[in-house]
């Protein structure tokens, strides 16, 4: 994939692009979770290379998109992503967001209605305020001291084992975490959770105006992800596809199953048009 850069007043955003020889193929835009970077989707970008046009980024303050001022909102991320897609001439993308990347996709849909061809949520949750209790949002705003109180070695072990059920998934998460210093990681995680709480508290419609595919690991133990996804399924009528044997990073734990579901959702429909 070709490494690209987009400059903002707060820092540079690094992303990677792969264009299919058949340029009319759909665009798959991969959005990693909080504290993770483009490596989270390496099993997907390898699989879909040549089958679709691809873009994956390191979100601001993540991975190679550092240094970057830790003063962004979810809407800021969505607007910068929109600028990058415009810079690359990408229209009607399919946004594939894992965890925080799924929240970002919903903010994007809210700010730019009618511009997205599809949304794949991987181990993410709905962004509407009605799904959340007050205490859950309060907890999201007060995580920094908790993270700082945990020794770094133990925090890395918890972060990798708590998000992935496979050795590969744990190894990828461990590798990404170790690219940060402890304080940098804790401040980034705490900022991301506050940003999420602010976005939910904004109480906006976050209407999904495109086909929705919901994927969630059967062993996802991150917060109340499984409960939120069951409620999401009931409200919007899009079934949750439970990924057997997968944790929170189901695209790493069970890439073959996840890739097959994405391919059926995206490429089979495209081939039938």
TrEMBL record:
An example of a GO molecular function for this protein is: catalytic activity
- Ranges in a coiled coil: none
Q: Which residues form the AB hydrolase-1 domain?
A: 52-260
- Output the InterPro entries linked to this UniProt entry: AB_hydrolase_1, AB_hydrolase_fold, AB_hydrolase_sf
Question: Protein name, please?
Answer: AB hydrolase-1 domain-containing protein
């Amino acid at each position: 994939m070709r490494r690209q850069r987009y400059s903002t007043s707060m820092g540079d955003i690094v992303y990677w692009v792969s264009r299919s020889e058949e340029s009319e193929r759909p665009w798959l835009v991969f959005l990693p979770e909080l504290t993770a970077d483009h490596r989270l989707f390496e099993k997907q970008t390898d699989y879909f290379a040549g089958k679709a046009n691809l873009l994956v980024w390191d979100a601001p303050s993540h991975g190679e998109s550092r240094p970057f001022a830790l003063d962004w909102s979810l809407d800021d991320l969505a607007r910068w992503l929109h600028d990058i897609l415009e810079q690359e001439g990408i229209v009607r993308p399919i946004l594939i967001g894992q965890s925080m990347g799924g929240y970002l996709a919903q903010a994007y849909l809210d700010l730019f209605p009618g511009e997205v061809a599809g949304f794949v949520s991987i181990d993410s949750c709905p962004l509407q305020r009605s799904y959340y209790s007050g205490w859950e949002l309060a907890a999201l705003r007060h995580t920094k001291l908790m993270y700082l109180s945990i020794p770094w070695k133990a925090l890395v072990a918890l972060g990798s084992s708590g998000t992935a059920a496979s050795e590969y998934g744990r190894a990828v998460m461990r590798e990404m975490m170790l690219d940060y210093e402890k304080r940098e990681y804790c401040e980034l995680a705490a900022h991301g959770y506050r940003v999420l709480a602010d976005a939910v508290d904004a109480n906006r419609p976050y209407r999904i105006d495109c086909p929705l595919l919901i994927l969630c690991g059967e062993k996802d133990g991150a917060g109340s992800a499984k409960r939120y996804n069951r409620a999401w399924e009931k409200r919007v009528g899009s079934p949750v596809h439970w990924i057997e044997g997968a944790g929170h990073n189901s695209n790493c734990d069970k890439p073959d199953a996840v890739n097959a579901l994405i391919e059926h959702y995206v490429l089979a429909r495209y081939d039938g048009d």
